[in-house]
Amino acid sequence: MKTSISNKEVVLGVTGSIAAYKACDLASRLVELGVNVLPVLTRAAQEFVGAVSFEAITGRRAITGMFEPLQNTDVEHIAVAQRAHLFLVAPATANIIARAAHGVADDWLSTTLLATRAPILFAPAMNTAMYTHPATQANIELLRARGCHFVGPGVGRLACRTVGPGRMSEPAEILDAALPLLSGRTDLAGKRVLITSGATHEPIDPVRFLGNRSSGKMGRALALEALGRGAHVTVVYGPSSVDYPLNAELVEVETARQMADAVVECSRNADVIIGAAAVADYRPEQASQDKRKKTGSPLTLALTENPDILATVSRERRPGQVIVGFAAETRDVMENAKSKIAAKNLDLIVANLVGGDDAGFGMDALRAAIVDKRGNSADIGHIDKDALAERIMDQVVGLLRGSL
Ligand code: PMT
Question: How remote is the CA of residue 253 from the centroid of ligand 1, in Å?
C-alpha cells in the first residue's frame, strides 16, 4: 500500500499559453510525489514548449496529436480517460475552456475531456479581457455547474504587458487544489500540519558531529499523506537522505536547538504536530572552534541535554491541537512508549522497534504500534512507512473531529 496519491494517474493537459513553461515545473512536482503523469500537449502548446521536455520529466511519451503515428496503439484515448484519476489542464486557455464547455471533441485533449469521468481541474491562463469576457465567464460557470474545478487565475503582470486577472496560478497552488482531488480525500483540508523529520547533527568541532541514522523517510511519507488530504504542510527537517515534497513549506535545520526554535515558531498556528525526527537528546557541551587533534589518550566529551521539542510545544498547546510523537526503542517498546506519551503529554505515540534488519532507521518499513493517551494500543506489526503514514493520519483526523 502507498500514500493516497502515489501511483495515481494524472493526465496533464497543456494548452497554448506562455504559461506552458510552468507546466514543466508542475509535472516535475507531481512526479516527485510519486504520481504517474501523462502529458498531453495541444498543437498550440507545442509552439510554446516542446514535448521532449515533458517526456524527460515524466518518463512517459507525450501525446501530441490525435493522428500522430503510434499515438493510438498503446495509448488509446478512451482507455486513458477511464484510467486517469485526475485531468489537470494547466495552462487552460479560453479556447480549451470553451471547447470543454460545449462538448467539442476535435483533438486528443478535448476528446478525452469528454470521455473521462475523472475529476477535471482547470488552471486558466489568458489575457484579462479574454478572461473577463462574458463568453469565458459563462463557459466557466457551465463547467463549474457540471462539477469541474478551477484554480486561479491570479492577478498579475501578463505576457501582453497588462496587469489584471489571467495569470496562471503558481504550480504549488495548483497542486494544493489537485492533490485532494487526486486522493479523493479532503479530510485535512484547511488544516495546518507540522512535521519534524530526519536526524539532528550536534557539532563536536567544525568537521565532526554526533548524529543518528534517521533518513527522513517516515517524515516524508507523513508529509505526502497530509498533502494528499489537502493539508497545508510544514516540514522542519534535519539532515536527511530523502527529498521532501516541494509543495510543503520546508524549514531546514541542523541541530536539536535549531529544530526546537523552528518548531516552536511554526507550532503557533499548527492544528497538528507530528514528531517523526530522531532528535539528539544530548549535545557536546562545548563545540571546539578548531578541529580536535588526536592526543594518543582517550577522549571524554562532556554532553549537555537538549530541549525536548514535543514536551515544549505540548506545554503551550492550543485547544484542539493534536500532538503525535514517535518512540524508537530497542526493547520494552510498549512500556517506554506509554511513559513517553505521558511525560510529553501527547495524544498519540507511534511505538517502533528499531535495531532489526528489516525495519527502522533508513528502511522502508517499521515495526510499529499506535498507542493513545488512554493506553489503548493497536499493534500494527511490520508495515511500510507510506502505509503507516496513512494509518497515523486516519487517527489524527479522528482526533481532530473529536471522535477518538
Ligand atoms: O527517518 P527514518 O529513517 O524513516 O526513520 C524513522 C524513525 C525511526 C526515525 C522514526 O520513526 C522515529 O521513531 N522517530 C523518533 C525517534 C526518536 O528520537 O525517538 P525518541 O524516543 O528518542 O523520542 C520520542 C519523541 O520525542 C519523538 O517523537 C521525537 O521526535 C521527540 N523528541 C525527542 C527528543 C527531543 N529532544 N525532542 C523531541 O521532541
Answer: 15
Quote the CA–CA distance of 287 and 176 in Å, as a whole number: 42
Is the pLDDT reported for residue 52 higher than 50?
yes
Q: Please answer whether residues 27 and 91 qualify as being in contact, where contact means their C-beta atoms are separated by less than 8 angstroms.
A: no
Tell me the C-alpha distance between 271 and 273, whole Å: 7
Task: Give the full edge-to-edge strand order of the sheet including 120-124.
Answer: 36-41, 9-14, 86-92, 120-124, 149-150
pLDDT at 1: 42
Ligand 1 lined by 326 (C-beta under 6 Å): yes
- For residue 151, what are the β-bridge partners? none
Distance separating alpha carbons of residues 248 and 232, to the nearest angstrom? 7
pTM of the predicted protein model: 0.84
Q: What is the mean pLDDT of residues 390-401?
A: 96
pLDDT at 17: 95
**Who's near 193: CB < 8 A, 6+ residues apart?**
226, 231, 232, 233, 234, 270, 271, 272, 274, 396
What pLDDT sits at residue 281? 97
Q: DSSP for 119-170, please give it.
A: -EEEEE---HHHHHSHHHHHHHHHHHHTT-EE--PEEEE-TTS-EEEEEPPP
Q: What are the catalytic residues?
A: 160
Pairing assessment for the beta strands 86-92 and 149-150 based on DSSP bridges: unpaired
Q: How many C-beta atoms lie closer than 10 Å to residue 301's C-beta?
A: 13
Cβ(179)–Cβ(149) under 8 Å?
no
Mention every residue, 6+ apart, whose C-beta is less than 8 A from residue 104: 98, 110
Question: Is the beta carbon of 40 within 6 A of some atom in ligand 1?
Answer: no
Q: Which atom of ligand 1 is nearest to the CA of 306?
A: 36
**Does any ligand 1 atom lie closer than 6 A to the CB of residue 237?**
no
- List the beta bridge partners of residue 375: none
Query: Which is the closest atom of ligand 1 to the Cα of 216?
Result: 1
Half-sphere exposure for 262 (CA within 13 Å, toward CB): 21
Ligand 1 contact via 195 beta carbon (within 6 Å)? no
